[in-house]
Design the sequence.
């Protein structure tokens, strides 16, 4: 995903002279092509994320389209004040990219995990919140974000994530997209965790349970039209995210659900419990720890579908 | 389309500074707006910049070639609001509803979309210099020769992000960026030097790679000379450490930190205006 981001931002930098790339002292080699193609528009801002965000906002208010890139906690929680005041309050079109999101950097420990970013970023007025599941979504959403008038945040994975979409799938910000059709229940996900959701759908299929899988790559603004269809049509909607259970995609959909009238599907949420992960392990280990791996999703869904 | 500096003579700047001070004090009394001491300490810097050096276009406040000025010590907004009106960005009568419900004018600058002449909505300290650095870099990328001036304070130098910006700017050789530190030796609750070890402040900026000047921050001629030296020929950003007096211009307010929050009474307004030699 990281490489796809570097490739796409390089293309955008060549196409659009307003595009500027700011990095918090990471991915230097990754952006060599960008530097060649967009001379004078790459800035290694050092390990100083608060300043980097302010610089980006100042650029965005003066005709540029800055893309700010570093590891997720450092480009979100570390400089939340600057995102809030410099980018959002000013309505500055800054694109904030967090790499290694969720538990991608499980081995690095909780300082490098991001299980709060969707929740806090979506509280900010005017902020668009994006979580692509693969490089197809990443490329399309990055291009889409460049067309917005205000700030956008995109959390991406690391490298080697499976591609879930067919190339050329039509994608646009704010519109959920179906990854698999199914008639028995719906699984909703955002971001790279959708590969686990697809595994869960496979496991359920073995038992004859047909799960629809929907990618909610846009966490804000939520696709209310799609939610209305899903919650009206299926008996159960399960929301899966590599993020805390508080305030992320599940929380956001629960808020939406509370505003609706009429009979709605039951809702099941999968995400990280209210805890830091003190044990070291791989991303797969960390996902199992929080019960957001394919097997756990499938088994909890099966139990929820069983008649009481 | 033209951006022009006002380049008024020093005597005229002095008259405008006294008028601005009187207006700020009257407004504080009328609207119960605090931070009077902080406003009075930076009036001369604002007047030197707006009425002499900055190249501006009041008819087209967002003219892309304009010099950028950010009041990073956002609580000095009551001073900035008066100076922008006096400079002609909007009529003085726009200030009539100051502090009323629904007004644009209160304690901190609104966003540039809401008031002509504003470059950044500040109030939370430490935001102006990074944003100003971004503006200066944008000018370079866009091939425009504007200067960016950021007005900060000794209190604001408490913020770590100031020093992040102070390190990045010289590495990018941003010669069209200038920070002016309104060094009035007070912050909200005490002497700035006692709260955080600021000294030696000028040497700090110099050591960070900035062309650094020190001046009496009420010496209009000195301020004009330093602001006119932009862009710095050595390719470094510029820091002006302006030694000021909090509450400057009114004997009973000078260097008395009670005026960080105190609101003047009617008789104090009259006495202040008398000292300033402002009758209207």
Sequence:
């Amino acid at each position: 995903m990281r490489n796809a981001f570097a490739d796409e931002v390089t293309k955008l930098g060549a196409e659009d002279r307003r595009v500027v790339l700011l990095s918090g002292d990471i991915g230097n080699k990754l952006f060599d092509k960008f530097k060649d193609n967009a001379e004078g528009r790459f800035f290694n801002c050092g390990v100083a994320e608060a300043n980097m965000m302010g610089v980006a906002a100042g650029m965005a208010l003066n005709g540029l389209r800055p893309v700010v890139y570093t590891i997720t906690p450092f480009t979100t929680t570390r400089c939340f004040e600057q995102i809030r005041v410099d980018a959002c309050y000013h309505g500055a079109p800054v694109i904030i990219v967090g790499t290694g999101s969720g538990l991608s950097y499980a081995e690095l420990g909780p300082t490098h995990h991001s299980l709060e970013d969707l929740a806090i970023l979506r509280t900010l007025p005017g902020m668009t919140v994006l979580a692509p599941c693969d490089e197809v979504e990443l490329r399309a959403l990055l291009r889409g974000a460049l067309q917005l008038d205000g700030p956008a945040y995109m959390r991406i994975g690391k490298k080697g994530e499976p591609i879930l979409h067919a190339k050329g799938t039509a994608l646009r910000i704010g519109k959920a997209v179906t990854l698999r059709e199914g008639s028995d229940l719906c699984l909703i996900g955002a971001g790279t965790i959708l590969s686990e959701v697809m595994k869960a759908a496979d496991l359920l299929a073995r038992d004859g349970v047909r799960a629809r899988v929907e990618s909610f790559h846009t966490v804000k603004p939520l696709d209310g039209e799609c939610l209305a269809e899903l919650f009206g049509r299926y008996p159960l909607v399960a929301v899966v995210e590599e993020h805390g259970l508080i305030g992320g995609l599940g929380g956001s959909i629960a808020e939406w659900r509370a505003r609706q009238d009429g009979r709605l599907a039951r809702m099941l949420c999968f995400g990280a419990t209210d805890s830091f992960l003190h044990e070291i392990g791989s991303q797969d280990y960390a996902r199992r720890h929080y019960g957001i791996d394919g097997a756990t999703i499938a088994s909890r869904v099966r139990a929820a579908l069983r008649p009481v | 389309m033209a951006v022009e500096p006002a380049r008024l003579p020093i005597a005229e700047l002095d008259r405008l500074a006294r008028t601005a001070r009187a207006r700020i004090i009257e407004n504080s009394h009328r609207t119960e707006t605090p931070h009077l001491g902080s406003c009075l300490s930076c009036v001369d810097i604002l007047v030197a910049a707006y009425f002499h050096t900055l190249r501006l276009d009041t008819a087209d406040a967002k003219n892309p070639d304009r010099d950028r000025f950010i009041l990073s010590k956002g609580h000095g907004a009551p001073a900035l609001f008066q100076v922008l009106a006096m400079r002609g960005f909007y009529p003085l009568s726009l200030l009539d509803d100051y502090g009323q419900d629904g007004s644009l004018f209160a304690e901190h600058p609104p966003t540039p979309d809401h008031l002509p002449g504003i470059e950044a909505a500040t109030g939370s300290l430490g935001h102006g210099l990074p944003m100003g650095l971004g503006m200066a870099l944008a000018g370079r990328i866009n091939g425009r020769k504007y200067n960016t001036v950021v007005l900060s304070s000794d209190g604001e130098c408490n913020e770590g992000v100031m020093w992040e910006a102070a390190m990045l700017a010289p590495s990018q050789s941003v010669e069209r960026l200038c920070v002016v530190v309104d060094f009035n030796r007070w912050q909200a609750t005490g002497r700035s030097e006692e709260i955080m070890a600021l000294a030696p402040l000028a040497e700090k900026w110099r050591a960070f790679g900035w062309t650094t000047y020190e001046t009496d921050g009420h010496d209009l001629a000195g301020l004009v000379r330093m602001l006119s030296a932009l862009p710095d020929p050595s390719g470094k950003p510029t820091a002006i450490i302006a030694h000021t007096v909090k509450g400057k211009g009114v004997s009973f307010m000078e260097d008395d930190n009670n005026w960080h929050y105190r609101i003047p009474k009617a008789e104090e307004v009259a006495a202040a205006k008398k000292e300033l030699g402002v009758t209207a």
Observations:
- The interface with chain A takes residues 64, 68, 111-113, 119-121, 124, 126-127, 129-142, 160-161, 164-165, 167-168, 171-172 of chain B (CB under 8 Å).
- The first strand of chain B starts at residue 68 and ends at 71.
